[in-house]
């Protein structure tokens, strides 16, 4: 165990810090593109389907992370396919997966009888009970997502800012959109045990909203949003330890407080992002 000061002197708090930082840093990176694309609730829609994947895993007796990741990835790519081909508007496609996902999760939970057998930890998060293996998995997913965004952010930004202009410029817009959808699925699954599938979208959006109040460029927004997410994770864990609060909800509440402070004290908006 690494010697750290209170409140991270115990192993379970260090594992929680590891998972919280991984998600806090990476979730807003993906969320920045979703907000720019006006798909802020995409994380919620995929999260509901991931809940069905967790229930399916518990029913089948396999590790729920794998089934949740598979369900989330398929749903994310399907939402993007429906949106890009005009088969359903973005909001309508998300609503479809909202309701089908949660209904399927309820049915599968009933079949597996797992309501008291761990399903609630995925709904609301259970960061203080993550194992070393869980923490490593969350860190790997978060690190991989961050690396992909850092490498490909210019192409992703061009695709979400103006698809037609990006196509004219020769960018693989369909591939980039599918890649963004897949990254969203990965973050949703990584965050399940941190803040739960019901709150994961908040951690993808609120830090971005706060960052936009102070940043005139997209690149700077990515950096500030990631810093806000990391700060929310650390402060939320400290507050949860100090006052015996639910850590997942506390992390999101800290992000919400930062957003409100930024909205009141910062500049309200910028007319658009620059390409810096």
Give a quick summary of the entry.
The chain has 276 residues and is mainly alpha-helical. The chain has helices at residues 11-36, 42-60, 64-84, 90-112, 115-124, 132-161, 163-168, 173-191, 200-212, 218-243, 247-265.
Write the layout of secondary structure elements.
Blueprint: H1 11-36, H2 42-60, H3 64-84, H4 90-112, H5 115-124, H6 132-161, H7 163-168, H8 173-191, H9 200-212, H10 218-243, H11 247-265
Task: Describe the protein.
This protein is mainly alpha-helical and 276 residues long. The protein has a domain of 185 residues: Orthogonal Bundle (ABC transporter involved in vitamin B12 uptake, BtuC), CATH 1.10.3470.10. 77% of the residues lie in helices and 0% in strands. The chain is built from eleven helices and no strands.
Overall, the morphology is globular
Tally the helices. Answer: 11
Distance between the termini: 41 Å
Q: Which strand-content bin applies to the residues?
A: under 5%
The whole-angstrom Rg is 18 Å
The SS-based structural class is: mainly alpha
Using DSSP, what is the number of strands?
0
Mean pLDDT score, rounded? 86
Task: Specify the CATH homologous superfamily of the domain at 14-198.
Answer: ABC transporter involved in vitamin B12 uptake, BtuC
**N-to-C order of helices and strands:** HHHHHHHHHHH
Label the CATH architecture of the domain at 14-198: Orthogonal Bundle
Helix content: over 70%
Describe the largest sheet: none
Regions with pLDDT < 50 over 5+ consecutive residues?
A: 268-272
| CATH hierarchy, class of the domain at 14-198 | Mainly Alpha
| CATH topological fold name of the domain at 14-198 | ABC transporter involved in vitamin B12 uptake, BtuC
């Amino acid at each position: 165990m690494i010697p750290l000061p209170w409140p991270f002197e115990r192993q379970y708090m260090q594992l929680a810090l590891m998972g919280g930082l991984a998600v806090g840093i990476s979730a807003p990176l993906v969320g920045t593109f979703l907000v720019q694309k006006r798909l802020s609730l995409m994380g919620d829609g995929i999260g509901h389907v991931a809940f069905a994947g967790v229930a399916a895993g518990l029913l089948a007796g396999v590790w729920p992370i794998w089934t949740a990741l598979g369900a989330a990835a398929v749903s994310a790519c399907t939402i993007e396919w429906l949106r890009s081909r005009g088969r359903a508007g973005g909001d309508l496609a998300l609503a479809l997966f909202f309701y089908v996902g949660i209904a399927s999760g309820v049915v599968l939970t009933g079949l597996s009888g797992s309501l008291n057998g761990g399903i609630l930890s995925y709904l609301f998060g259970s960061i203080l009970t993550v194992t070393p293996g869980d923490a490593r998995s969350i860190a790997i997913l978060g690190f991989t997502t961050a690396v992909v965004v850092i490498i490909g952010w210019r192409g992703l930004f061009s695709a979400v800012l103006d698809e037609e202009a990006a196509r004219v410029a020769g960018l693989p817009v369909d591939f980039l959109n599918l890649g963004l959808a897949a990254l969203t699925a990965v973050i949703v699954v990584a965050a399940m045990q941190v803040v739960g599938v019901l709150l994961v979208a908040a951690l993808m959006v609120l830090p971005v909203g706060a960052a936009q109040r102070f940043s005139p460029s997209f690149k700077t927004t990515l950096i500030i949003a990631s810093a806000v997410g990391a700060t929310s994770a650390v402060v939320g864990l400290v507050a949860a330890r100090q006052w015996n609060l639910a850590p997942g909800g506390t992390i999101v509440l800290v992000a919400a407080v930062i957003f409100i402070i930024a909205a009141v004290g910062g500049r309200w908006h910028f007319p658009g992002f620059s390409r810096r």
